[in-house]
UniProtKB/TrEMBL annotation:
Similarity field: Belongs to the short-chain dehydrogenases/reductases (SDR) family.
The protein's name: Short-chain dehydrogenase
GO molecular function: oxidoreductase activity
Database matches in PROSITE patterns: ADH_SHORT (PS00061)
Length: 264
């Protein structure tokens, strides 16, 4: 049974499977109506019907390929004009395998369009709409590779670093308007992204791979606790705070009118 009937609608991208579908299930239980966005109409319809029966919330599906400018614009416009939408979960994303020098240019463009451009457009639309309403939440799914880019390939890691940076900046821009933002940094999560990108997750140690339900539950717990950045597998939040403190300490010396003496 859902907890409430007045939480508004959560728009979830990449909602047909994996992390997106799990967010849909969890948010339905919390009482959110749902607007599910993905490319796979059949999967969307099946998930929507299951969620209606299980939770009793309203579920709408919107088939869209967010790498297509017309489809992206439709979703963006919906965010700007539908006052019932109170949460955006920017989950849609892809990964590619291999080094930058080896990368297929078309696949790189698709990744940038989905992981960066689409997420940015939708975040902007949600920030504008939610800011005007004085309420709303934006959850951006990044990755721990934003913090350890050397561990993965350049394009994917850089795209997730962008998501983290964008979310941190948005916090400074929209928090005073009553809008909440969260960046979720999962580690390796058992989803279809591995197979789709040509990578084999089975070669990784089992202790590195988190089940998708556990990951989303931890992310939502972090959301409930008011975290700006949630790293589901990090045992001690003080480790993240230490990194933030070290970065902040750099601040006064990052822009001065003279080069550091060590460069003289």
């Amino acid at each position: 049974m859902n907890q409430s009937t007045n939480k508004g609608t959560a728009l979830i991208t990449g909602a047909s499977s994996g992390i997106g579908a799990t967010y849909a299930q969890r948010l339905a239980k919390r009482g959110y109506d749902l607007l599910l966005v993905a490319r796979d109409q059949q999967r969307l319809d099946g998930l929507a019907e299951n969620l209606r029966q299980a939770s009793g919330v309203k579920v709408e599906v919107l088939r869209a390929d967010l790498t297509d400018s017309a489809d992206l614009q439709r979703v963006e416009q919906r965010l700007r004009t539908d006052p019932s939408i109170s949460m955006l979960v920017n989950n849609a994303g892809v990964a590619i395998n291999g080094t930058l020098a080896e990368a297929d240019a078309a696949k790189v463009n698709t990744l940038i369009q989905l992981n960066i451009v689409a997420l940015t457009h939708l975040s902007a639309a949600a920030a504008a709409s939610f800011g005007t309403a004085g309420r709303g939440s934006i959850i951006n799914i990044a990755s721990v590779v934003a913090l350890i880019p050397e561990m993965f390939n350049a394009v994917y890691s850089a795209s997730k670093a962008y998501v983290l940076s964008l979310t941190q900046t948005m916090q400074a821009e929209v928090s005073s308007l009553g809008v909440r933002v969260q960046a979720v940094l999962p580690g390796v999560t058992r989803t279809e992204i591995w197979e789709r990108s040509g990578m084999d997750a089975s070669v990784l140690p089992a202790e590195m791979i988190m089940e998708v339900g556990d990951m989303v539950d931890a992310a939502l717990a972090g959301f409930d606790q008011g975290e700006l950045v949630t790293i589901p597998s990090l045992p001690d939040a003080a480790d993240w705070q230490a990194l933030v403190t070290a970065r902040t300490k750099l601040g006064p010396n990052l822009s001065r009118n003279q080069a550091a003496a060590r460069y003289s």
